[in-house]
Amino acid sequence: MSQHATNAARGSANAIKVVLGPPTKMSVPLLDLKAQYAAIKDEVWLAVRQVLESQRCIGGPKVAELEEQVAAVSDCKFALGVSSGTDALLNCLMTLDIGPGDEVITTPFTFFATAGSIVRVGAGPVFVDIDPKTYNIDPALIAEAITEKTKAIMPVHLFGQMADMDPIMEVAQRYGLAVIEDAAQSITGTYKGKKAGSIGTAGCFSFFPSKNLGGAGDAGCIVTNDEQLYNRMKVMRNHGASPKYYHKFVGGNFRLDAIQAAILLVKLPYLDSWCEARRQTASYYDEKFKNTVVQTPFINPDCVSVYNQYVVRVPAGRRPPQGVLRTADNRDELAAYLKEKGVGCGIYYPLPMHLQECFEYLGYKAGDLPESERAAKEVLAIPVYPELTDQMKDYVVDTVTAFWCGDDS
Length: 409
Ligand SMILES: Cc1ncc(COP(=O)(O)O)c(C=O)c1O
Prior knowledge:
By secondary structure, this protein is of the alpha/beta class. The chain is about 35% helix and about 10% strand. α3 (about 60-75) packs across α8 and α4 (about 85-95) packs parallel to α5 (about 110-120). Pyridoxal-5'-phosphate (PLP) binds near residues 113, 114, 206, 218 and 220.
């Protein structure tokens, strides 16, 4: 709690009254990709020019080099560059022959692509509730969701923190299921020292611009240690053609553009330092929010998070500490307050997958997966991107803290 809040909360007769006033208004967006671009602009331009001059615009040496480097940073034998994180998931499911009549177990608390890709191959998503501390799928609930139709488990490593993979792999092995890691938000994150994407049958990354490693458009990658699977995924990436114009099966156009690969190759050497900067900001926030009503992210001691998002929780219905002026007690009011004060924030995700209109036919109803539903009402992501200055971080801290202190005159 800030000094001001502490004094306000004490409110004793002999306390020295310190009036700090509200922090001077500044603008701190949730993410500032222009700041990253400004730091590496010359390198990016050079890389793009090289591709344009080579006119190898799809696949080619830049894609091969990126695949080699992504495999290396993920401790995997193989990597396959693809057109997006969504297409990475889709390619994996198609290559594993998952389709109509099959079920895939996953989390409802994720970005739509996870469940959407399962439905797009004709399979049924089976949603299992989350661990309320990490927001990742609760492994203890997976076994009871398994049926004769279950073909795979698709855990998501949300916000940069890997799911609890040991019990997930144990249950998968027990029932002979594939595990597709949706690692879209967590490249280079670890679980017991193992890299995201390296534990399951395959792992999928997104290089959407807002990811820790983001392209200048859509791009993605699949990693695996299974050579046969890799070879089949490679054919799947190009309409199932092998050789060209001879189609073994029906695949898709999941190819990666060389310009994206070239830009990602420029950024990859910075990834560790960017993730470290995110972690440092996270521990700064953790410390500053320790005694406030804002719950800071819980990181499993087995994990190193890459904090694609720093997500606080505002438990609904909890009152601010005694003595503070504000009575607002929920996430939506905090979000509105932050926006009004110039601090960007975002809700990931406001409606769990099992309650989405397009999945009504699955028959889920409100209350079925209570932890996911509660999280959807209470979470709020605040700025954690690497280029935040100390002044910006302080402003975020002061503004969040001021919300409960009435410092908004
Ligand atoms: C958890 C998760 N899965 C899948 C995706 C899909 O990735 P893309 O946007 O690159 O298709 C995303 C990206 O937002 C994601 O966050």
